[in-house]
Each structure stands twice: as structure tokens, then as C-alpha cells.
Predict the 3D structure of the following.
Amino acid sequence: MLPRRYQRIRETLDRRQPDLTVLTEDVHKPHNLSAIIRTCDAVGVFEVHAMNKVVDGEDLPTFTQVAQGSEKWVELHRHTTIEGAIAQLQARDFKIYAAHLSDRAVDYREIDYTQPTAVLMGAERWGVSESTADAVDGHIIIPMLGMVQSLNVSVAAAVVLFEAQRQRLEAGFYQQPRLDEKIYQRKVFEWGYPDLVDHYQERNLPYPQLDEQGQIISES
Ligand code: SAM
């Protein structure tokens, strides 16, 4: 890997936020999931969670050109039930806020996004399901002052995520690395040497160490 690329990878990982994520509830149009992931990369979100019902063996949404390759830089965790996804995130002390046009929703800018936060986005047509709305920690709304009742789901995700980024920039969250060191090193290798990843994983081998220029220095 070229030193310049190594530096770029490190700068990006230095700004990744392990405690800010998005959970999608059956967002099934590939271009929407792709656009959300692309926004997550820009905001510095480390991982995204997507729950999709598999109907009649139909495939989960795949990535489109809209993602512009950002799916390589944001970890995607797939879930088959929304209950399971919520339970996993709550066990990790995330507060889950559903972007949901309900009576108890508060303005999205009222939330403190410097806390571990998952923003839950509802399906294109049906929005957030009733049982999910009951299971989360709160509801947020982006005020709509026009004729149309809702935004496109990827646009709504971007609005909320950039507010989270604004708060985290102000709190200095992008000034020092926040990822766990082991995860950080794993990602440096996976992003820097994508063609070698299978080789190590198939043989169940640890990734090799890198020197300060990002070159492989030891084979274990
Ligand atoms: N008919 C659906 C409803 O009533 O929820 C509209 C779904 S909307 C196209 C898809 C998703 O985008 C919503 O479930 C929500 O997560 C998000 N969304 C869209 N506009 C929003 C807004 N103004 N405030 C909060 N979330 C919004």
C-alpha cells in the first residue's frame, strides 16, 4: 500500500464513531440503503445495522452505484428480526431513537447524540412498525412545513446524522481515535490489503503486522 493511502486510511479510522449507528427497519430499496451507507461514511459512522424480511427467498437489497463504493468503508450488520437488532444494540448501551412521525416525537435537534446512539429508520412505504415504535427509547421528527408529509428515508437519515456529527464535532469526538485498538488495526489491514483478506481468513490466520508506512513486516 502506498504511504499516502495508508495515511488516508488512518485519518478516516481516526474519525470513526463506534457509538453512533443507524438501524434500518426493512428499508428495501437498494438505492436507499446505499445512500444511507454513503452518508454514514461521510459522517464517520463505523457500522450500520439493517433488518430485512426475506420474502419468498427474495434477496436482501444489494448495493447500487449510489453507494459509490462506501459499503467497503462502513461495516454492514444484517439482521432478520428487528427485535434481535434492538436487543443487541440496547445490550451495548445504545439509546435507540426512531425517526418516526408520531404524537410523542420530539424535534430531532433536541437529542444528545454524544451519547451512544442508534437512529432507527422506517421502511419506505410503511414507516416504523408499531411494535418497534413501542420498543425504542424515543421518537424524533424532522419538522415538515410543506405539503408533503415525509422525506425520503435516506434524506431523513442524512439530516439526523449531520446533526449528530455537528454535536460530536463540537464535543471534540473527531479529534482522537475512538475505535478499540484491535478493531482499528484489523480495519487498517482490511482496507489497505483487501486482496489478502480471504487468504488470512480462510486459513484462520491472524493478520500480519504493518510498519509505520503501512508495509507488511511480519508473517505469522
Ligand atoms: N408513510 C410512512 C410513515 O408514515 O411513516 C412514511 C415513511 S418515510 C418515506 C420513510 C422513513 O423515513 C420513515 O419511517 C422515517 O424513519 C423517515 N422519515 C421521513 N420523513 C421524516 C420526518 N419528517 N421526520 C422523521 N423521520 C422521517
Q: What stands out?
A: Strands lie at 20-25, 47-51, 75-79, 95-99, 106-107, 117-121, 138-141, 209-210, 216-218. Residues 99-101, 121-122, 124, 127-128, 141-142, 144, 150-151, 153, 156 surround S-adenosylmethionine (CB under 6 Å). The CA atoms of residues 48 and 122 lie 14 Å apart.
